[in-house]
Design brief:
Elements (H helix, E strand, L loop, with lengths): L4 E4 L3 H10 L3 E4 L5 H6 L7 E4 L8 E3 L5 E4 L4 H6 L1 H6 L1 H8 L4 H6 L2 H6 L52 H7 L3 E5 L5 E5 H4 L18 E7 L6 E7 L10 E7 L5 E6 L9 H4 L6 H8 L12 H15 L6
Parallel strand pairs: 1-3, 2-3
Antiparallel strand pairs: 4-5, 5-8, 6-7, 6-8, 9-10, 10-11
The structure holds iron/sulfur cluster (SF4).
Protein backbone atom coordinates (compact mmCIF):
# COMPACT_ATOMS: atom_id res chain seq x y z
CA UNK A 1 0.00 0.00 0.00
CA UNK A 2 1.35 3.42 -0.90
CA UNK A 3 1.67 6.30 1.54
CA UNK A 4 -1.12 8.88 1.56
CA UNK A 5 -2.10 11.96 3.53
CA UNK A 6 -5.42 12.27 5.35
CA UNK A 7 -7.87 14.90 6.49
CA UNK A 8 -11.33 14.79 8.03
CA UNK A 9 -13.86 17.07 6.37
CA UNK A 10 -16.43 19.05 8.35
CA UNK A 11 -18.54 20.55 5.57
CA UNK A 12 -19.78 18.94 2.31
CA UNK A 13 -18.99 21.88 0.02
CA UNK A 14 -15.59 22.31 1.63
CA UNK A 15 -14.90 18.59 1.16
CA UNK A 16 -15.80 18.86 -2.53
CA UNK A 17 -13.60 21.92 -2.96
CA UNK A 18 -10.67 20.16 -1.30
CA UNK A 19 -11.15 17.05 -3.46
CA UNK A 20 -10.99 19.18 -6.59
CA UNK A 21 -7.99 21.17 -5.36
CA UNK A 22 -5.74 18.35 -4.12
CA UNK A 23 -4.33 16.20 -6.91
CA UNK A 24 -5.06 12.51 -6.50
CA UNK A 25 -7.56 13.03 -3.67
CA UNK A 26 -10.35 10.55 -2.96
CA UNK A 27 -13.26 10.61 -0.55
CA UNK A 28 -13.41 7.82 1.99
CA UNK A 29 -16.39 6.75 4.12
CA UNK A 30 -16.93 3.05 4.87
CA UNK A 31 -13.88 2.17 2.79
CA UNK A 32 -15.16 -1.34 2.09
CA UNK A 33 -14.08 -1.19 -1.55
CA UNK A 34 -11.51 1.62 -1.64
CA UNK A 35 -9.23 0.18 1.04
CA UNK A 36 -9.11 -3.19 -0.73
CA UNK A 37 -8.23 -1.42 -3.97
CA UNK A 38 -5.52 0.61 -2.23
CA UNK A 39 -3.96 -2.53 -0.76
CA UNK A 40 -3.78 -4.00 -4.26
CA UNK A 41 -2.44 -0.66 -5.59
CA UNK A 42 -5.27 -0.49 -8.11
CA UNK A 43 -6.36 2.77 -6.50
CA UNK A 44 -3.40 4.93 -5.50
CA UNK A 45 -4.79 8.12 -3.96
CA UNK A 46 -2.19 10.50 -2.58
CA UNK A 47 -4.74 12.06 -0.24
CA UNK A 48 -7.88 10.81 1.50
CA UNK A 49 -10.73 13.08 2.56
CA UNK A 50 -12.73 11.40 5.30
CA UNK A 51 -16.39 12.37 4.90
CA UNK A 52 -17.77 10.39 7.84
CA UNK A 53 -18.12 13.54 9.98
CA UNK A 54 -20.40 15.38 7.58
CA UNK A 55 -23.65 14.42 9.28
CA UNK A 56 -25.11 12.87 6.13
CA UNK A 57 -26.48 9.89 8.00
CA UNK A 58 -30.20 10.61 8.35
CA UNK A 59 -33.28 9.26 6.57
CA UNK A 60 -36.01 11.89 6.29
CA UNK A 61 -39.41 12.05 4.67
CA UNK A 62 -39.67 14.54 1.81
CA UNK A 63 -42.50 16.98 1.15
CA UNK A 64 -43.83 14.88 -1.74
CA UNK A 65 -44.10 11.67 0.26
CA UNK A 66 -40.71 10.23 -0.65
CA UNK A 67 -37.56 9.56 1.37
CA UNK A 68 -34.24 11.38 1.44
CA UNK A 69 -31.43 9.01 2.38
CA UNK A 70 -28.18 10.59 3.54
CA UNK A 71 -25.11 9.44 1.65
CA UNK A 72 -23.57 8.07 4.85
CA UNK A 73 -26.54 5.92 5.89
CA UNK A 74 -25.16 2.40 6.21
CA UNK A 75 -26.59 -0.42 4.12
CA UNK A 76 -27.65 -2.14 7.35
CA UNK A 77 -29.52 0.92 8.66
CA UNK A 78 -31.23 1.51 5.34
CA UNK A 79 -32.38 -2.11 4.99
CA UNK A 80 -33.76 -2.04 8.56
CA UNK A 81 -35.63 1.27 8.28
CA UNK A 82 -39.36 0.52 8.70
CA UNK A 83 -40.37 3.02 6.00
CA UNK A 84 -38.03 1.31 3.54
CA UNK A 85 -39.25 -2.16 4.51
CA UNK A 86 -42.90 -1.09 4.18
CA UNK A 87 -42.86 1.18 1.12
CA UNK A 88 -39.68 0.28 -0.77
CA UNK A 89 -39.36 -3.42 -0.02
CA UNK A 90 -37.41 -4.08 -3.22
CA UNK A 91 -34.67 -1.86 -1.82
CA UNK A 92 -34.56 -3.58 1.56
CA UNK A 93 -34.36 -6.98 -0.15
CA UNK A 94 -31.63 -5.90 -2.55
CA UNK A 95 -29.58 -4.47 0.31
CA UNK A 96 -29.62 -7.66 2.37
CA UNK A 97 -28.66 -9.65 -0.73
CA UNK A 98 -25.40 -7.70 -0.90
CA UNK A 99 -22.04 -8.56 0.67
CA UNK A 100 -22.03 -9.75 4.30
CA UNK A 101 -23.46 -8.41 7.55
CA UNK A 102 -20.12 -6.93 8.59
CA UNK A 103 -19.65 -5.18 5.25
CA UNK A 104 -23.22 -3.86 5.24
CA UNK A 105 -22.57 -2.32 8.66
CA UNK A 106 -19.75 -0.24 7.18
CA UNK A 107 -20.84 0.27 3.57
CA UNK A 108 -22.65 3.52 2.88
CA UNK A 109 -25.39 4.53 0.45
CA UNK A 110 -23.10 6.87 -1.48
CA UNK A 111 -20.19 4.46 -1.51
CA UNK A 112 -22.34 1.57 -2.67
CA UNK A 113 -23.20 3.51 -5.84
CA UNK A 114 -19.50 4.16 -6.46
CA UNK A 115 -18.11 0.67 -5.91
CA UNK A 116 -15.90 -0.58 -8.71
CA UNK A 117 -16.44 -3.62 -10.91
CA UNK A 118 -15.46 -7.09 -9.75
CA UNK A 119 -14.06 -8.08 -13.16
CA UNK A 120 -11.18 -10.43 -12.21
CA UNK A 121 -8.80 -8.78 -14.68
CA UNK A 122 -9.42 -5.36 -13.14
CA UNK A 123 -8.01 -6.76 -9.90
CA UNK A 124 -4.96 -8.40 -11.52
CA UNK A 125 -2.39 -5.71 -12.22
CA UNK A 126 -0.44 -8.10 -14.48
CA UNK A 127 -3.37 -8.06 -16.93
CA UNK A 128 -4.40 -5.42 -19.47
CA UNK A 129 -7.42 -3.42 -18.35
CA UNK A 130 -8.75 -0.25 -19.97
CA UNK A 131 -10.69 0.61 -16.85
CA UNK A 132 -7.67 0.45 -14.54
CA UNK A 133 -5.10 1.64 -17.09
CA UNK A 134 -6.76 3.48 -20.01
CA UNK A 135 -5.52 2.37 -23.42
CA UNK A 136 -3.87 -0.83 -22.17
CA UNK A 137 -6.47 -3.22 -23.64
CA UNK A 138 -9.01 -5.59 -22.15
CA UNK A 139 -7.83 -8.98 -20.96
CA UNK A 140 -11.43 -10.12 -20.51
CA UNK A 141 -11.88 -9.96 -24.29
CA UNK A 142 -8.80 -12.02 -25.10
CA UNK A 143 -9.13 -15.59 -26.40
CA UNK A 144 -9.98 -18.05 -23.66
CA UNK A 145 -10.60 -15.32 -21.08
CA UNK A 146 -12.78 -15.96 -18.05
CA UNK A 147 -15.96 -13.98 -18.71
CA UNK A 148 -18.63 -15.94 -16.83
CA UNK A 149 -19.29 -13.03 -14.45
CA UNK A 150 -19.08 -10.27 -17.05
CA UNK A 151 -21.56 -8.20 -19.02
CA UNK A 152 -23.81 -9.11 -21.95
CA UNK A 153 -25.35 -5.75 -22.83
CA UNK A 154 -24.32 -2.10 -22.69
CA UNK A 155 -20.72 -3.22 -23.05
CA UNK A 156 -18.18 -2.09 -25.66
CA UNK A 157 -15.13 -3.46 -27.43
CA UNK A 158 -13.11 -1.70 -24.73
CA UNK A 159 -14.78 -3.16 -21.62
CA UNK A 160 -17.40 -5.78 -20.77
CA UNK A 161 -17.44 -5.31 -16.99
CA UNK A 162 -20.64 -5.22 -14.94
CA UNK A 163 -21.61 -2.93 -12.11
CA UNK A 164 -21.66 -5.03 -8.94
CA UNK A 165 -24.22 -3.21 -6.76
CA UNK A 166 -27.52 -4.80 -5.72
CA UNK A 167 -28.68 -1.58 -4.06
CA UNK A 168 -28.30 0.38 -7.30
CA UNK A 169 -30.61 -2.04 -9.15
CA UNK A 170 -33.34 -1.30 -6.61
CA UNK A 171 -32.61 2.42 -6.78
CA UNK A 172 -33.06 2.19 -10.56
CA UNK A 173 -36.44 0.47 -10.40
CA UNK A 174 -37.55 3.09 -7.87
CA UNK A 175 -36.41 6.02 -10.07
CA UNK A 176 -34.14 7.43 -7.36
CA UNK A 177 -32.17 10.64 -7.75
CA UNK A 178 -28.61 11.20 -6.57
CA UNK A 179 -28.02 14.51 -4.82
CA UNK A 180 -24.56 16.03 -5.01
CA UNK A 181 -22.55 19.09 -4.14
CA UNK A 182 -19.92 20.42 -6.52
CA UNK A 183 -16.62 22.08 -5.58
CA UNK A 184 -18.26 25.45 -6.36
CA UNK A 185 -20.85 24.74 -3.66
CA UNK A 186 -23.70 24.33 -6.12
CA UNK A 187 -25.90 21.27 -5.80
CA UNK A 188 -27.69 19.10 -8.34
CA UNK A 189 -29.84 15.99 -8.58
CA UNK A 190 -28.90 13.29 -11.09
CA UNK A 191 -31.52 10.69 -12.07
CA UNK A 192 -30.12 7.25 -11.23
CA UNK A 193 -30.68 6.23 -14.86
CA UNK A 194 -28.06 8.81 -15.87
CA UNK A 195 -25.69 8.36 -12.95
CA UNK A 196 -23.67 5.36 -14.19
CA UNK A 197 -22.05 5.64 -17.63
CA UNK A 198 -21.68 2.99 -20.31
CA UNK A 199 -18.02 2.21 -21.08
CA UNK A 200 -17.86 3.19 -24.78
CA UNK A 201 -14.27 4.22 -25.46
CA UNK A 202 -13.71 5.47 -21.91
CA UNK A 203 -14.41 2.63 -19.45
CA UNK A 204 -12.40 4.41 -16.75
CA UNK A 205 -15.19 7.02 -16.60
CA UNK A 206 -17.90 5.29 -14.59
CA UNK A 207 -20.26 7.98 -13.33
CA UNK A 208 -21.63 11.40 -14.23
CA UNK A 209 -19.83 12.94 -11.26
CA UNK A 210 -17.44 15.78 -12.05
CA UNK A 211 -14.01 16.03 -10.39
CA UNK A 212 -14.50 16.71 -6.69
CA UNK A 213 -18.29 16.32 -6.79
CA UNK A 214 -19.58 14.64 -3.63
CA UNK A 215 -22.74 12.55 -3.22
CA UNK A 216 -24.76 13.96 -0.32
CA UNK A 217 -28.01 11.97 -0.51
CA UNK A 218 -30.22 9.71 -2.57
CA UNK A 219 -33.88 10.66 -2.88
CA UNK A 220 -36.68 8.19 -3.49
CA UNK A 221 -39.96 9.42 -4.99
CA UNK A 222 -43.25 8.70 -3.24
CA UNK A 223 -43.98 4.96 -2.97
CA UNK A 224 -45.49 3.35 -6.06
CA UNK A 225 -47.14 0.48 -4.20
CA UNK A 226 -47.48 -2.95 -5.78
CA UNK A 227 -45.72 -6.17 -4.87
CA UNK A 228 -41.94 -5.94 -4.62
CA UNK A 229 -39.46 -8.73 -5.19
CA UNK A 230 -35.70 -9.10 -5.67
CA UNK A 231 -33.73 -12.21 -6.47
CA UNK A 232 -30.01 -12.57 -6.94
CA UNK A 233 -28.78 -15.65 -8.81
CA UNK A 234 -25.18 -16.37 -7.87
CA UNK A 235 -22.63 -19.14 -7.65
CA UNK A 236 -22.99 -19.61 -3.88
CA UNK A 237 -25.73 -18.84 -1.39
CA UNK A 238 -24.19 -15.71 0.15
CA UNK A 239 -21.29 -13.29 -0.11
CA UNK A 240 -21.05 -13.50 -3.89
CA UNK A 241 -21.77 -11.06 -6.68
CA UNK A 242 -24.73 -11.56 -8.98
CA UNK A 243 -24.60 -13.63 -12.12
CA UNK A 244 -28.03 -12.10 -12.74
CA UNK A 245 -30.26 -10.22 -10.34
CA UNK A 246 -33.86 -9.25 -10.99
CA UNK A 247 -35.87 -6.50 -9.30
CA UNK A 248 -39.63 -6.58 -9.86
CA UNK A 249 -42.55 -4.35 -8.88
CA UNK A 250 -46.00 -5.60 -9.96
CA UNK A 251 -49.26 -3.70 -9.79
CA UNK A 252 -52.72 -5.31 -9.46
CA UNK A 253 -53.57 -4.39 -13.07
CA UNK A 254 -50.60 -6.40 -14.38
CA UNK A 255 -48.37 -3.41 -15.12
CA UNK A 256 -45.08 -2.93 -13.35
CA UNK A 257 -41.36 -2.47 -13.59
CA UNK A 258 -38.32 -4.72 -14.02
CA UNK A 259 -34.61 -3.99 -13.56
CA UNK A 260 -31.64 -6.30 -13.95
CA UNK A 261 -28.26 -6.43 -12.26
CA UNK A 262 -25.21 -8.50 -13.15
CA UNK A 263 -25.69 -8.11 -16.90
CA UNK A 264 -24.49 -4.60 -17.75
CA UNK A 265 -22.16 -1.78 -16.67
CA UNK A 266 -25.15 -0.16 -14.91
CA UNK A 267 -28.52 -1.29 -13.55
CA UNK A 268 -30.47 -2.28 -16.65
CA UNK A 269 -34.04 -1.19 -17.24
CA UNK A 270 -36.23 0.18 -20.05
CA UNK A 271 -39.76 1.52 -20.28
CA UNK A 272 -40.34 -0.66 -23.36
CA UNK A 273 -39.51 -3.81 -21.39
CA UNK A 274 -41.68 -2.67 -18.46
CA UNK A 275 -44.59 -2.39 -20.90
CA UNK A 276 -44.18 -6.09 -21.79
CA UNK A 277 -44.86 -7.28 -18.23
CA UNK A 278 -48.49 -8.31 -18.93
CA UNK A 279 -47.09 -10.54 -21.72
CA UNK A 280 -44.85 -12.54 -19.38
CA UNK A 281 -41.18 -12.97 -18.48
CA UNK A 282 -40.04 -14.10 -21.93
CA UNK A 283 -41.43 -10.96 -23.58
CA UNK A 284 -39.89 -8.68 -20.94
CA UNK A 285 -36.42 -10.19 -21.15
CA UNK A 286 -36.50 -10.37 -24.95
CA UNK A 287 -37.12 -6.63 -25.03
CA UNK A 288 -34.82 -5.73 -22.15
CA UNK A 289 -31.87 -7.71 -23.51
CA UNK A 290 -32.48 -6.92 -27.18
CA UNK A 291 -29.08 -6.45 -28.81
CA UNK A 292 -27.20 -8.34 -26.10
CA UNK A 293 -23.71 -9.49 -27.09
CA UNK A 294 -22.78 -12.24 -24.65
CA UNK A 295 -19.57 -14.23 -24.79
CA UNK A 296 -19.68 -18.00 -25.17
CA UNK A 297 -19.08 -18.23 -21.40
CA UNK A 298 -21.88 -15.95 -20.26
CA UNK A 299 -24.64 -16.50 -22.85
CA UNK A 300 -26.42 -18.47 -20.10
CA UNK A 301 -27.32 -15.14 -18.48
CA UNK A 302 -30.14 -14.54 -20.99
CA UNK A 303 -32.18 -17.67 -20.14
CA UNK A 304 -31.19 -17.26 -16.49
CA UNK A 305 -32.68 -13.75 -16.45
CA UNK A 306 -35.87 -15.03 -18.05
CA UNK A 307 -36.24 -17.92 -15.62
CA UNK A 308 -35.45 -15.75 -12.61
CA UNK A 309 -38.08 -13.21 -13.64
CA UNK A 310 -40.62 -15.98 -14.33
CA UNK A 311 -40.00 -17.40 -10.85
CA UNK A 312 -40.39 -13.98 -9.24
CA UNK A 313 -43.65 -13.40 -11.11
CA UNK A 314 -44.94 -16.75 -9.94
CA UNK A 315 -43.97 -15.89 -6.35
CA UNK A 316 -45.44 -12.38 -6.50
CA UNK A 317 -48.72 -13.02 -8.31
CA UNK A 318 -51.20 -10.30 -9.06
CA UNK A 319 -54.75 -10.84 -7.86
CA UNK A 320 -56.19 -12.67 -10.88
CA UNK A 321 -53.31 -15.16 -11.28
FE1 LIG B 1 -10.81 -4.13 -17.48
FE2 LIG B 1 -13.33 -3.87 -18.28
FE3 LIG B 1 -11.72 -5.47 -19.59
FE4 LIG B 1 -12.48 -6.13 -17.12
S1 LIG B 1 -13.80 -5.98 -18.88
S2 LIG B 1 -10.38 -6.25 -18.01
S3 LIG B 1 -12.65 -4.09 -16.16
S4 LIG B 1 -11.49 -3.24 -19.40
Amino acid sequence: MRAFSYEKATDPAQAAARAAAVEGARFIAGGTNLVDLMKLEIERPGHLIDVTGLGLDGIAETGDGGLRIGALVSNTALAADMRVRRDYAVLARALVAGASGQLRNKATTGGNLLQRTRCPYFYDTAQACNKRDPGSGCAALSKGAFSRQLGIIGTSEHCIATHPSDMAVAMRILDAEVETVKPSGTTRRIPIADFHLLPGETPHRETALEPGELITAVTLPAPVGGRHAYHKARDRASYAFALVSVALIRQPDGSGRVALGGVAPKPWRSAEADAELPNGARAVIARLLEGARPTAENAFKIPLAERTLAALMANAPIAEE
